[in-house]
Amino acid sequence: MGIHAIYPGPNLSKRSLAHKIYPYLLRNVTAQYPNHIFGIDITYIRLTHGWMYLVAILDWFSRYVVSWELDQTLEMPFVLDAVDQAFMRGTPTIMNSDQGSHFTSPQYIQRLLKQNVQISMDGKCRAIDNIFTERLWRSIKYEEVYIHNYANPREARAGITAYLSHYNTTRPHQSLSYRTPAEVYHSKN
């Protein structure tokens, strides 16, 4: 009959009911310096046929993408790899995420606790609690992904790699007085 289901993309935010939820620590808190607050999230990247999944860790003070990983599955290792890479660059005081199963999993939580990172989680259905990372997703999708319509994972990886390099090092941000995230993140001030 030619009937096809159309849906907006995979649901990435379902949590395991057995996992602990941490409170949102950032109400009325503003990032004061690099590595003060990191936000982590996962989004899907549309391909011509299928999806890939992008996890990114963003420094809220500088808007610098500290680390990221792209994978064809939602298996846990790509999230843990991104966290490990981020901790090689810097350790935040607070790490904020949503309540998705990746971010409530014991493997993820143990990594943060081992580094003495305070754990903050968005309120249920509160995407605005992680607004800086949500804004990053908008930038990536409108300035890169939707323009290029990737045919395969190799094209997606090349495009995302180039875009995030541009985002960090050459794309000025109005909120940073027209400096780049890299300039602010690596500044000594």
From TrEMBL:
One GO term (biological process): DNA integration
One MF annotation (Gene Ontology) recorded for this entry: nucleic acid binding
Integrase catalytic domain residues: 30-189
Domain of life, source organism: Bacteria
Alphabetized Pfam families for the sequence: rve
InterPro entries assigned: Integrase_cat-core (IPR001584), RNaseH-like_sf (IPR012337), RNaseH_sf (IPR036397), Transpos_IS3 (IPR048020), Transposase_IS3/IS150/IS904 (IPR050900)
NCBIfam families (UniProt xref): transpos_IS3 (NF033516)
Protein name: Mobile element protein
Species, as recorded: Sporomusa ovata
